[in-house]
Amino acid sequence: MLGANGVGKTTLLKMVATLLLPDQGRIHVDGYDVEQEPRRARERVGYVLADERSFHWRLNAENNLLFFARLDGMDVPSAKRRIAFLLERLDLMSARERPFGQYSTGMKHRLAVARALLMRPRVLLMDEPTRSIDRGHAAEVWRLVREEIEEVEGCLVVVTHQVQEALGLCNRVSILADGSIAIDTSADSLGRFTSDLDGFTVSVRGLAASDMETLRDCEGICDVRLASHMAGEQVLEVWTANGEEPLASFLNAVTSTGATVCSLQRATPLQGVIERLIAHGSNGTAENGHYEPVLPGATS
Questions:
Q1: Topology of domain 2-161, per CATH?
Q2: Measured between alpha carbons, how far is 296 from 278 in angstroms, rounded to an integer?
Q3: Hey, is 131 helix, strand or coil?
Q4: What are the pLDDT digits (tens) for 116-156?
Q5: What is the second-level CATH architecture of the domain 198-267?
Q6: What is the pTM of this model?
Q7: Residue 67 to residue 82: CA distance in whole angstroms
Q8: CA 153 vs CA 1, 18, 140, 146: distances in Å
Q9: What is the Cα–Cα distance from 86 to 209, expressed in whole angstroms?
């Protein structure tokens, strides 16, 4: 699931996880209505939140996971075996006795994945799960997730701002706009619109809202959008006109504002893909039913 910041992606996941009630419509999880049978629905859901506020910061990783496993009714021996397996797979075993508050942001996010997988859920919800995880660990997270989902014949729902991540993981992709599904299409169909779009995602700290226009004025930059803002970091989606050429001057402009660059990676700009898809749909073209856009403003 893709979409700009604030369009309702996290809200939708929270409704599926029974943390929020829908204002209208119905949501069923593995056949159970989230309003009529919330406990049954919740038993089938694992949720990787976009932040780590639910953990106990003074407890170590092992005891945090044991606490949540016991809340879910798992006996201690089974819980400890499951926890050891997950910590080993997510490269957290050597840090299992360290207090959660001493973990790096990436380690916290990996522990959140472990917590979501504890009870082997049929439906796994993941909200930007790898945004602060290095590439090597992110690859292992996705390998583990695929194995777990396949083992229970389950379903994965991912919220991400990274087009390539969505294409690599998902069979179907939905793009949200203004609280509605603007585009619902296959990953293969979406991929046809990304081949020649150049861009980057840049995580920064300390960038003022007033500095965004300065960054947009950099030579070779088509647009800069704030994709997300969490844990003190702003994730910027940068759309370039000619590949990597404007990158050096753009980064120099960022640091000139007094902000700090935390990370950088090549990424297809989401906004560019959305504009192409909407233009494609508004022209009345579709390919064998694989692309079925619902334009913003329509109900879905």
A1: Rossmann fold (3.40.50)
A2: 9
A3: coil
A4: 999 999 999 999 888 778 888 989 999 999 999 999 999 99
A5: 2-Layer Sandwich (3.30)
A6: 0.73
A7: 13
A8: 20, 22, 20, 10
A9: 40
